[in-house]
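Annual report, structural modelling task.

Input specification for the FE2/S2 (inorganic) cluster complex:
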Amino acid sequence: MAVATVTDLGKYEAARLIIDQYIAGEKTLIGMLLDIQEEFNFLPQTVMTAIAEETGIPLAHLYGLATFYDGFSLNAQGRNHIKCCTGTACVVRGSRAILTELILDMGINPGEVTDDDAFSLEAVHCFGACAHGPILVTGEEYHGYVTSAKAREIIGKLRKADEEAGK
Ligand code: FES
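The model returned the following structure:
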């Protein structure tokens, strides 16, 4: 398991540039957070603290925005973020076996990121699409009626796409 920290100087400098653009009036507050999210795949605590210190925006306000909008994540994510529904309707249809399959396949538990940053896993209580369960979400794509075999296939396609993209 990789614990995400902001120790990569290159990435931190990218964050500084984004913050400077906000201070210069070239970005809105949401725009700054979106760019940070895109750079790191989540909003690291270190960067959120730096934003608060350098802009004077209260940290509580920043976290209020980060938790209000679905597009932001406060947890580290891999290039491919996999969400598996563990709500009652999906569990009845076999989502626990799918989650186990994903844990074994990727070697991480929900809330963790693979060492190569390729995958992260999250267990979600309900996507509101219970009739099509079990539901698996990869990035913005919803997969319904997922089986363990289909989950393996989905992960395999994502690995192949990463390989083809040289990642
Ligand atoms: S319980 Fe899985 S989508 Fe609702």
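The mean pLDDT is 89.
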